[in-house]
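Q: Joint fold for the lines below.
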Amino acid sequence: MCAHCRERAGASFDVHALTVYLAGGEEAWALRQRVTQAVANDPLYAQKTGKADWTRAQLYERTLEMYLGMTKKVLSMKEKDPLAAGRVLRELLDEPCGLDLHVGMFIPTIQGQGDAEQQKQWLPLCYNLSIIGTYAQTELGHGTYLRGLETTATYDASTQEFVIHSPTLTSTKWWPGGLGKTANHVICMARLVTQGKDYGPHAFVVRIRDANTHVPLPGIAVGDIGSKLGYNAIDNGWLRFDHFRIPRRAMLMRHASVDADGMYHPPKVAKVAYGTMVFVRADIVQNAALFLKKAVTTAVRYASVRRQSNADPSTGKELQVLDYPHCQRTLLPLVATAFAFHFTAEYMRNMYTAFEKSSRTSGDFSALPELHATSSGLKALCSARTKDGIEECRLTSGGHGFMAAAGYSGTLGNYAPNVTYEGENNVLLLQTARYLLKAAQRVAKGGAPAGGAAYLLCSSAPARSPLGKSTEMRDEHALLDAYRHRSARLVAEAATAAAKTMARGGDTFSVDQLAWIAAANAHCACVILTAFQDGVRAAAKAGLPASGVAVLRRLFVLEALSGMDSSLGDFVEDGFMDASQARLLRATLRQVLGDVRPDAVALVDSFGLSDLFLNSCLGSYDGDVYNRLFEYAQAAPFNDSQTGPGYERLLQTRLSKGFGKPKL
Amino acid sequence: MCAHCRERAGASFDVHALTVYLAGGEEAWALRQRVTQAVANDPLYAQKTGKADWTRAQLYERTLEMYLGMTKKVLSMKEKDPLAAGRVLRELLDEPCGLDLHVGMFIPTIQGQGDAEQQKQWLPLCYNLSIIGTYAQTELGHGTYLRGLETTATYDASTQEFVIHSPTLTSTKWWPGGLGKTANHVICMARLVTQGKDYGPHAFVVRIRDANTHVPLPGIAVGDIGSKLGYNAIDNGWLRFDHFRIPRRAMLMRHASVDADGMYHPPKVAKVAYGTMVFVRADIVQNAALFLKKAVTTAVRYASVRRQSNADPSTGKELQVLDYPHCQRTLLPLVATAFAFHFTAEYMRNMYTAFEKSSRTSGDFSALPELHATSSGLKALCSARTKDGIEECRLTSGGHGFMAAAGYSGTLGNYAPNVTYEGENNVLLLQTARYLLKAAQRVAKGGAPAGGAAYLLCSSAPARSPLGKSTEMRDEHALLDAYRHRSARLVAEAATAAAKTMARGGDTFSVDQLAWIAAANAHCACVILTAFQDGVRAAAKAGLPASGVAVLRRLFVLEALSGMDSSLGDFVEDGFMDASQARLLRATLRQVLGDVRPDAVALVDSFGLSDLFLNSCLGSYDGDVYNRLFEYAQAAPFNDSQTGPGYERLLQTRLSKGFGKPKL
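A: Joint structure:
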């Protein structure tokens, strides 16, 4: 019996049922399989398996080709819901593309900030790709801080034009995806200056390249910023304006506007864009779940095939790597975390949907502060944990994890930017901290913080954890309470420090920054565990078989225990837990790892990720690792010739000198 | 005044004096500068700045060319010590090469295991590169565990030949550097079978490629294993033997041998190779120091140029990134760790030299167990910490850290294998654990463990840390004692668990693995702090100015405090430290970060790393980050044309349709 077959036969739960549940039901799962099948048999899409050896130019061109072919492909499938099929196909491609910001930022910004006439002018051209746009905000010297942008758009009433200009080197637009070579338009964020006054950053639609030749227009300098750690299918670009003139109506005018005479009208509603940011961050959390699932699927499957050291005297076989405690301690909590993030993403989507509905139908924006705070922190925590998790998975795969054939290098390189974009993670955690400070201040005044921060009220609750004393160490409520206690304590301590700092006129989020980042992380851990618990309950309610619910409960306990083990100091520092509980925690954690171990392969199977998506010789469903690695190596471009690049020039004479015929 | 000038002007110590001291004295520092100068002006070597955009073939060929040119280059410099100059040049190239294993493994193995006649036959050919070899040990299915190797060398007395054979797919040799395309010989580790008996792995010298054509000889199949996460200048390869015959004397016979009739003679001294392993690991620790210095130099310099958010109302300028507490908390301890590793590498070299001398002159091998245990654990801890540290540095550089121009991607990719090769890190930590168990058993019997483990005797010493109670939180002795207490406690706990496990007939290094890995890491942290402390004392003794010694002492305290903060649970779990001490620890850490902050740029300057070595737009000495980034982008190959790859085929028609001339 093959290694994976043996593992699968030993699973304690119905894998198919869990797979379907995670995929969102029978219909969604069937669609996913149909799309996967259709793509696997299409040479355009199936070529991606050798991707790691493509040059950057090949990666760019082939990815662009696959994207441009998506519409045709989806339509050929004659699916009832072509958009849903397209989303699955997009996920399978698993590569960023020069068109991403056209779809994800250029079009939505025109939709959201253009007035009716502007939408009518540009959107049809966008939809049929007669123009391709991107979103140019970040500058060479300015990132997260929007107010720091230097590019100016100065209104000239005499010609009714804006003059866009890059006054300094640091004002050079830098990073927009697709800007380097693909796009011929941008949304340019520039400081609007009119009638001698600077009104700060506003959005302008600017054509930058000639429609026929794709050459930059006079006054525009644009190019690619060079290769990166990953994301190289995208032509991230730079852009400079030299007093470049655009019509007045190139400014998106739905909210703010400038009259022909230069009179400025500010937007009526501030912060209208917050909702969209929450949506984007929910998406990042969902992506975190997806990429953690991807890495851990590969790592668990390979660890159940690979054997190393400590030969069993009875069989003479080396020990299964997944049976090493240190491998289990690394991988199985990551499996649990992938589930936790899955349910957290669901929680965020629900939260966003509820907010969107209540704000739209009854003008109720009251949920926004919590939504903003939670989504900021979760984006930070989940993306950082996933990035690190991918690398931890790679390391459990030993030397072979370093090969491109393993798939980790591509995953790492393409996932890494999630930690930096859409808000740098420390900056985002400080957003969560601001919300927590307000909540703490409310508690101090006898008030009750809303929603997910309500537990802060209980900070004076049990100062000693019942875990292992009056409850089992696996008690779900006591575990969650422990996380809440920690968070409440860290928030209270940071708030106390803040009061002192503010009394001195200082900025607490700068002075007490480390304490606030710790508090925000601790709060987010509570949100995640709560979402996980709610997700398990919902699964039970939705009819997931009891064996599946049981395994999810075990994973909840594993997520909670392993997190406590990793930041034990937080739980013992104030005496909430003592040395005997710490020891019991470690012993219980080891037992839970042992309980989850037999289900490990079945659990990653339930993520339902196809071989095409995984794109890994180590992670394929059949576990035929060594044949796949060997075949992969045969196909490596370096093997097109028996001699290496430069052999004739550098080595031939040297090596053949003095050897009439081979000796030895 | 430029940002870096301002920083340098504020340093509290004499940078030149510390630079010279770290470089190993005036002479060594002068040599380093001469080589750097000579290389910077040589087009062959200066070309490396654009390296991130090279194809793999270019990277392979150009790196090989630079290596092959080294001898000529060094000789042209007419240095007194050409070998020392060569080492500096090799470091500056900062790229692995297909010849590394020829120099680092093939030649040394022949020197160490070949008899006089064999050395005479092969070594001259090796020295003038008439043959190029590599070291083929690891197999597709077998890594760390030497006894698991499957390749066989079966002696055929009738022809006096060995028949080398790869009996299975998993026996395919996999990974040897330079094997893919460069080498025409290997040292093949194969199970020696003679007179019907398997004597386990032995070393054989095997020609695999024709001297004139470089084509694999009949019976040999060989190729490259494909691209990797990094290290792509090296052609790591695979190799299969199909009953390939080699002469009897191709077996290296200095220690073991096989007679013409097939009689096997085992080696007289076992484990002769341990000394070399220690030497290699000392080298890895030194490399860890070098690469951590490299990353942190770039990160600190860029953080002292880059500004972000929180504009200062008085200047309107955004805040210096290095003034953010979270940036300081990440970077400054890494500066301290780089110094710690520097002195640890020195300690290991001294330890090795002493052992080498005593074993050679008086046959005293008694230091070997500690040497082996310490070097194993230090290799693991230092390489893991460095790999993670490089990534942490990258993250403090924000989005621009993701660009190849920043230099981190190359550093990460090329450094990463250190964690896996020369012994997987968990496996190595368990080697340290074996030594610690023996030491603990000796203590339990009333004996005293030797050398660096002697502190285990003090495990029953102060159960409460005096830090912040009867001593300052910065007290060096109390800090070191805290680390020793932690280590002694973790070793004692693991040893207690081991006693129970062994009583049940279990393998403690499997059953109690996590406890042993924790104990080994804690022990290594003590060794590192001790080496750091000794290093500072030696610097003072050697006449380093007091200001330099003072800053090193601060870094020692920072290393100790930040390590405690990161694993606080270990120090508070057993009540050794309490909540008030934990709070004081964090407050003191923040003060120390503040104390070190003004010296940050000067400290990384003192590492003496040249711009050529750093190869980073963010890390250059002059801090002219934005001009460098802009120039780098201009030179990116993607900018050779205004249109991207595939434009004519994929985009032109679409984008020009319906547009007679540019609108807007």
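Q: Anything notable?
A: Chain B touches chain A through 143 residues (CB under 8 Å). The first strand of chain B starts at residue 133 and ends at 136.
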